Amino acid sequence: MPDRIMTNPTFPALTITPALVEAAQTSKAWPFEEARKLVKRFRKGKDIAWPDKVLFETGYGPSGLPHIGTFGEVVRTSMVITAFRILTEDKVPVDLICFSDDMDGMRKVPGGVPNADMLAAHLGKPLTQVPSPFSNEHSSFGEHNNAKLRAFLDAFGFTYTFASATQHYTSGRFDEALKAAARAYDAIMEIMLPTLGEERRETYSPFLPISQKTGQVLYVPMLSVDPEAGTLTFMEDGEEVTQSFLGGMAKLQWKPDFGMRWAALGVDFEMYGKDHQNNSALYDRICRALGGRAPEHFIYELFLDEIGQKISKTSGNGIAVEDWLRYAPAESLALFMFTKPRTAKRLYFDVIPRAVDEYFQHLAAFEGQDEKVRLANPVWHIHNGTPPEATMPVSFSMLLNLVSAANASDKATLWGFISKYDDTATPQNNPKLDELVGYAIAYFEDFVKPTKEFRAPTDQERAAMADLAERLAAMPTDSDAEALQTETFSVGKDHGFDNLRGWFQALYQVLLGQDQGPRFGSFAAVYGKEETVAMIRERLAT
After folding, report:
1. 204, pLDDT greater than 90
2. Of 451, 469, 494, the domain-final residue
3. Which of 155, 399, 457, 487 has the maximum number of C-beta atoms within 10 A of its C-beta?
4. Domain final residue, candidates 404, 433, 451
């Protein structure tokens, strides 16, 4: 029987109606598709045999700080949990285990940490046996990073149970599973050896003893394994050693460890990146060899950096969670994670504005949607079925253009334009918009301003822009965005722009120093008709 982690985490409350459950049965949103597979896992004929708890798991390697992949796995798994709770009308206990592989040996000193020389003296030891290089607050490097992981997850409000490999091994919770692995030693070797190179096969063992001399994790072949005595026999420094593999005196290689953990804990669902896809069948076979049932899987695509290379925690390319949150709200990052998880996507700074605007577009659409359409709306999954109300009179991309046009470096300047456009909007009654104003200033300063490049207009463009300034100046002061857009469109047509897209792009390049922007009429309405006229005339005079 699996040694399930029996906790009772309090997940966010759900409002479940018969109509919601019915819509969930056929929803094509991927969390519901995965949740239905999980329901099917427990179906036996017409009946369903539920375990005491359905266990979801995510894994974490604490050799470094939590990263954007960690966020992605937890937020996506949480979405599947919510979908599962809807399908089961929240009558089946669930838990999300965030499991830290903190007993892994430290293979190299991570970059960017203090006291690197001190860390180098502990290479090869389990991360929870390596002193923390940061302070005396935590007794080990592994515990320091585990604390960062928990703080990271708590900051986003995730519901989860933290689990430590070190605690599970040393407390004996994995002892029965390790005995099962010892009894299935030959079967595990048959699974693993065909996947290894010839030289590696000669020294491979699923078991990694912890040296009682050096404290290091030993990668040595086994002379013998005794399941009943719970011992390993191997050579260390030319000496034959027999020691227990129980109580934390040994651990498993990472691939066998995957399968063992599933069998030992009774994991029902785990998702991981495409880099695990080739090993997924190995994990399953090892789990079954130990008498367990492999969990349901969800394999997601990896993120790419700005040049299309796979993002790697080791190489440090791409974008970190804290980077994203400097320029946009967490909900926009959750949207990015929700959208097409099985498609490789560029994860870089230039995707942020679109993610922000799409989030608020989905949020604005939610209220008018029926139950079935709502379940396909990302904000339903981001907010556990109860998205907040949010009125956003201007888009994030519009705010970026306002910052650019007004050369604004403070919130008050931007709010001056927003208030003229919508006199009901204030920082007090729309704090979310106030957040976006701050994000827009930060994003503009770091990414837009350094790349702005104004160009001189062609003769045709100059004549058209001069005419546009005259026509806008003559329009009523209260002209709305649609009227301003129509007039701009007419000017382009009257001045012989066969491709009106080129006309609008010329406006952005000459006036704002960028290749694209929002609808020009909308921009002029928010920025102000008179201010837009002044900007055009100023640019034509340079």
Report:
1. yes
2. 451
3. 399
4. 451
